[in-house]
Amino acid sequence: MSFDAEKLLQAMAELPLGPVRLMEVCGTHTMSIAKAGIKSVLPENVRLLSGPGCPVCVTPAEQIDAVLELAMEPGVVLASYGDMLRVPGSRPGDSLLRRRALGARVEIVYSPVDAVELAANEPDKQVVFLGVGFETTAPGTAAAVLTARNAAYGTSPSGACSRPWSPRCAP
Fold first, then answer.
1. What is the pTM of this model?
2. Residue 111 sits in which domain range?
3. What pLDDT digit, counting tens, does each position of 72-88 carry?
4. Domain identity same for 86 and 139
5. 25, 91: one domain
6. Are the C-beta atoms of residues 67 and 130 closer than 8 Å to each other?
7. How many Cβ atoms sit within 10 Å of the Cβ of residue 89?
């Protein structure tokens, strides 16, 4: 089966649609579309809109650089969703995956609560959760922060003290 791009573009132009707007959500999509010159060959009624970008794509390189440096600190365990491991910093080829190969302790987690459990199991380490994600990940991250706080200070989710000796519970 052969593919004829010209016929496809002609068929798109002949569709009885009004204006068509398509949003590229991810920066990688936007870059691929630009690199391939797709915008320049689309029919006049098709307009591409760049969306907000996924958090992985729009995290500034300087912030990634700071995370890469943090990952190399002794006693630090960096917990992250897997999609962040290949995100480059400002230096070509540098990423959490590379830093892990150089000896950094980088753990993939599937939930922020996994990072809390990792910290509970390794109290001698400083576990840092790299909380990059869409707004849908914010409630889980907030729940993990509360879980960690409650575990550290001996409080319940309501804030009531369950460990009178904890500094949080001191009068």
1. 0.64
2. 59-153
3. 999 999 999 888 898 88
4. yes
5. no
6. yes
7. 22
